Amino acid sequence: MPYYIYIVSTSAGTTRKTVAHVSEYANFKLAKTEVRRLRAETTLEDGQSYRIMFAEERAEAEKRLLEHREEPIAREWEK
């Protein structure tokens, strides 16, 4: 299964996200190296970030990136 690299944009004041496909790699090490290079060389707007997603196909990767996830609750001993 390939590793997909996306730019994930979050709208200010909302939880709505959009994704833009950048590239895909068959090897995690190559994908991780590319994301690190992109993060170092490219300045993104506020609310944007590079993300790597592992999935069987591109549509599944985009679906996973767009799903709403609850914020984790910090326990007393984690503070």
Strand content: 25-35%
- As residue ranges, the low-confidence spans are none
Number of strands: 3
Fraction of residues in helix: 25-40%
Spatially, the strands of the biggest sheet line up as 2-1-3
Rg for CA atoms:
14 Å
The main pleated sheet reads as: 3 strands, antiparallel
From the N-terminal CA to the C-terminal CA, the straight-line distance is 37 Å
What string gives the helices and strands in order? EEHEH
Counted by DSSP, the helix tally is: 2
**Shape field:** globular
Descriptive account of the structure:
The chain has one domain. By secondary structure, it is an alpha+beta fold. It has 2 helices and 3 strands. The chain is globular and about 40 Å long. It has a 3-stranded antiparallel beta sheet.
Main attributes of the structure:
29% helix, 30% strand, 79 residues
Concise structural overview:
This protein is α+β, with helices and mostly antiparallel strands. The chain has helices at residues 28-41, 58-66; strands spanning 3-10, 17-25, 48-54.
